[in-house]
Fold:
Amino acid sequence: MEYDFLKQFSRRMKNVGMYAVLLKNVMYKSTLKQYGFELLEEQVTLVFAVMLFIMEQSLRDEICTMDDICQFADELNLKYFHKNITYDNMKEAINFVVNTILGNAGEAIYFDCYDFEKEKYERKNIRYISNKAVNVDAQGHMESISVNSGVRRTSYYMTEDGYNLLLGTLEIESNMKLTVQEMIFKLHLERAEYDKAVDTIKDIFSQIKIQLKKVEEAMLRIRHNALNYSVEEYRQTMRENLQMIEDTGKKFHEYEELVQLRVHELEEQNINIHKLDEKELENLANLKVIEKYLQRTISSHQAILNMHMDFKTVYDEQLFQITQMSLIKRFDLRKELYQPILEDASRLTNIEIFLNPLLSNEPDRIYNLGKALEYQKPVRKNGGEDTEVISFDEEAWEEERKERIAKKQALYDGILSTLFGAVMQNGGNISLEQLMQSISDEQKEKMTADIGALKTVVVELLREKCVDIERLKKERRDYILEENEEFHLGESLLRLFGDSEVSRITAERIEDGKEVVLCRQENGRRIVCSNVNIAIYNEKVE
Structure:
């Protein structure tokens, strides 16, 4: 099993590490408690507020000295925190936040991130903020470093890691994520960067699946209690659904057609024109992965479209039921019924007035579980007429499946047997052009009876290039192979050469520009293939 989802794991872990290191510096240092920030929530709030202020100043290209940060924190305290702390103490607390928590007391911060592709840990450097020396004039404006009239101060600014951390705390809306990823995916396809397009389409599929799960959970919450699902949440979910299904479905279908066209072009090129190089083979593999994820994305997209209508219907029904319940007049049985009767028993003479509304409708039928468990005698009509029972015959179905598999195996084995039989008759090494000229009409008719099967055999031989029969024998001894209806070259070769001395089989394209005519159909159409050299080796010919 290939764990493709573990690619770029070290990059993910660096993003996790930025939060882990920051929170560790906050939790394991108790200095902020001395200034009244005793709870962890208060400490984290202060640290992130300071980081946001530094980021805002950095984006504006304005200076951000310690005095600026302290003034900002002091205003926050007066307006929101209400801590009994002087300005000097606040300055000490902010100095601790900036230089110790964020700056790690001047020491470099590292986080070990495991890389599954390299199978080892890599040390990633993390730096939230940095500083630079600036000249500040009397009005507090920044001057050029070459000007010596001002005062030299230290200005703090946000680094790339700091930007990534803070921007990750406020996610953009899901529909914007999908739009951005779709644009990136389109760009990768246009540039033929299929390896990057694979990662992007996986991200798109994940976002659509997340939205699908979100709608499912929302419907479950509404069914439990619609009042627990606010109107704002309903509007937000509806908006996300509509924006997601508005035009992305059409685009995904277009991408699917484009990818299928390019896959077809590469496969035809591999068979009829020239052998694909390593880069083209990699592109073909990536295109097939993209095609698979596009199909899954379109399926999930259709599921959201269907569920969107169900979501609206469920919400409307639940709200309607709640409004119906509100119209029912409720009363306290003890107060309205029992107590008056206990005070005056003569009121029982009119009790039917109270009970009539309860008995006005026939009770609904209920499912009797006891009856379901009783033995049910068959009901016979016309004096005991026999009842025909039609049942599913599993054995017959299995026999039919085995017969179908055997028929397909015989078709492919017949083609391979004729092909390799002619190769062995010609010394074990022959080109496809020479082979078609040397075999009889009967053998040629047997090989070309099913052109699709012959094409599959040739493509698989070219794809494998060299088949090690001994390795196939070992795999058959070590593993249990399940029978299936798909063609597997290795299984067919084992049935043909499993008990022989043949050790390996090779198939290579001959770049001579010749076209081999496999057969001519009744409508005059020729079925051609590029020339291929096929060789069979036994243990003595190594």
In short: The two ends are 33 Å apart (CA to CA). Confidence is low (pLDDT under 50) at residues 387-392.
